[in-house]
Amino acid sequence: MLKLNRSFASSFVAEDELVSYMDEHADVLARCQAGEDRYADSLGWLSVDEWASDTILDRTCALAEQIRSMADTFVVIGVGGSNNGSRSVQAALAPEGARLVWAGNTLSAWELNRVLDELEGHDVVIDCIAKNFETLEPGSSFRLLRQYLVERYGREEAARRIVCTGTIGSPLEDLCRAEGYTFVPFATNVGGRYTALTEVHLLPMAVAGVDIRALVAGARTMERLLRTAPAGENSAFAYASARNMLWDRGYRVELLSFFEPRFRWFSKWWEQLFAESEGKDGRGIFPAAAECSEELHSLGQFVQDGTHILFETFLDVLEPGAGDSLVLGGTDVADAFGYLDGKDFWDINKASFTATREAHAGMLPCFTLELDCLDEEHMGMLFYWFAFACYASGELLGVNPFDQPGVEAYKRLMFDALGK
Ligand code: PA5
User: Fold this and answer.
1) Alpha carbon of 128 to those of 162, 182, 218, 312, 332: distances in Å?
2) What is the rounded average pLDDT of the residues 102-130?
3) Is the CB of 275 under 6 A from ligand 1?
4) What domains lie within the chain, and their CATH numbers?
5) How far apart are CA 216 and CA 220, in angstroms?
6) Is 239 helix (H, G, I), strand (E, B) or coil?
7) What is the pLDDT of residues 353-388, one digit of tens each?
8) DSSP states of 85-109 as a string?
9) Pocket perturbation via mutation, ligand 1, pick of 102, 105, 129, 135 by most ligand atoms within 8 A of CB
10) To test ligand 1's pocket by mutation, which of 87, 105, 131 has the most ligand atoms within 8 angstroms of CB?
């Protein structure tokens, strides 16, 4: 299960103040729980079953199986909301299915050459994931990789090795029909960054060997909780409320800190979710991430001692899983680290986390999202918990959490420069 520990923030956001804020804004929670008509074209994720029903899961698992029978390497071509969700899970759980290679998220020739090198000697299937099929990074990578497959396998066999996940009726679907590629429908009423629990990400996860049924079961559990719990007992609403109380008090940056590097891609998913959902109309809390303990030696100084614009949310996994234990043996070399003899890195890392939280909590509000363990079920819970919290938080802030008008300005200039 997930639990929001607020005790290290209570000297900045007093519990009684938070409870009255939540009571005062209970109508916002009720609207989010029901889903508002004005966002009907963006709320397909709110009911997990709409895009991750048992039928869809069966279909996704069958396609994943077919892909794995043809390939040991699956190239996921997508950017932002078409990339970060499945990549989070692959990085967090290191499943043992097909290897995933990431493309469509860069315009760097060096990086794309590296991706092509990674394919040599492997059997490859590619998946171009694009809601609009206008985005430059996936569009250009798709052409590059399509041509690579045609050169390597011939046109007919290449077509068997191309999957596209796109909007029904889009030019990407037309292209699939014309060329005989496998077409997977992109959830029509879900914006990219909210698609973690749809085929957009469930297919790459399943190909990678993730138990997507367990992941979706975790999300369903979280949906049941968050869509029924009243304001005082709703942890995602408490988080959304605390963020907005802190915004009102001048806090402008939220740092998502974690002591498991496996959360690196999850933190990118989280950054996109909050940056695009809240950063608009001159408002919003800037989401940043700190991969600890490494960042304690770079960002840590500012966090502890710098301008008071930051609050922090830690991700903490309570129970160790497989691979989470490594005991440091003693040594007869006088290396000055004798105090570590026989200690497990799991405990050393925990000591670093608890000390950091205690030190930071003296200077800034610190929340901790506690996960019992790190597995598929908890990844599903995390996705739903943060998506729901983000919806509620955007509503409290008074912005539309589902559009991203700010990204158009650079695109216009870039497309002009490229002669589109
Ligand atoms: O949240 C969103 O909708 C966006 O950030 C998209 O995820 C991102 O721009 C990628 O879009 P597309 O899948 O259309 O290439």
Assistant:
1) 8, 10, 27, 35, 55
2) 98
3) no
4) 2-34+215-397 (3.40.50.10490), 48-210 (3.40.50.10490)
5) 6
6) helix
7) 999 999 999 999 999 999 999 999 999 999 999 999
8) HHHHHHHHH--SSSEEEEESS---H
9) 135
10) 131
Please work out whether the CB of residue 191 comes within 6 Å of at least one atom of ligand 1: yes
Strand partners, 76: 102, 127
Ligand 1 centroid – CA 234 distance (Å): 29
Structure confidence at residue 69 (pLDDT): 98
Q: What rounded mean pLDDT belongs to the chain? A: 97
- Per-residue pLDDT of 187-196, as tens digits, reads 999 999 999 9
**Which tens digits make up the pLDDT trace of 49-58?**
999 999 999 9
276 is known as an active-site residue: yes
What separation in Å is there between the alpha carbon of 72 and the centre of ligand 1? 27
Give me the torsion for CA of 179, 181, 187, 191, rounded to 10°.
Answer: -70
Q: Which of 137, 254, 276, 291 is catalytic?
A: 276
pLDDT band at 104 (very low <50, low <70, confident <90, very high): very high
- 193 CA to centre of ligand 1 in angstroms: 7
